[in-house]
Amino acid sequence: MDERFLKIADQLLLIERELRIQGWWDDVPPSQEALSSVEPFSVDTLDFEQWLQWIFLPRMKMILEQGLPLPNASGIQEMAEMVFASRNVQGKDRQLQALLKEFDLLITASR
């Protein structure tokens, strides 16, 4: 097992917690059509926070649970920067961006 798995699992829990704290966690999933987008980050059908909740977190949890290889790279924090720069969230996004940056660093850390 990759030694980063436990740290990444903890980071995923922190990301989920932050989404909930900020009120960006949905109880009702988007439509199957919205979840089936082939665009990066599902930008055509989901808000970034929805993508984190309904696509990113479940995929990463599945990878960890099944012991599959981790991605070689991650640019989620960069995407978050672009998304939040276009919104007026008044700093609510800072903690989430910090958590996503730490996730990106864990993914690219040497094994």
UniProtKB/TrEMBL annotation:
<dbReference type="GO" id="GO:0044010">
    <property type="term" value="P:single-species biofilm formation"/>
</dbReference>
<protein>
    <submittedName>
        <fullName>Uncharacterized conserved protein YqcC, DUF446 family</fullName>
    </submittedName>
</protein>
<dbReference type="InterPro" id="IPR007384">
    <property type="entry name" value="UCP006257"/>
</dbReference>
<dbReference type="InterPro" id="IPR036814">
    <property type="entry name" value="YqcC-like_sf"/>
</dbReference>
<dbReference type="Pfam" id="PF04287">
    <property type="entry name" value="DUF446"/>
</dbReference>
<feature type="domain" description="YqcC-like">
    <location>
        <begin position="8"/>
        <end position="105"/>
    </location>
</feature>
<dbReference type="InterPro" id="IPR023376">
    <property type="entry name" value="YqcC-like_dom"/>
</dbReference>
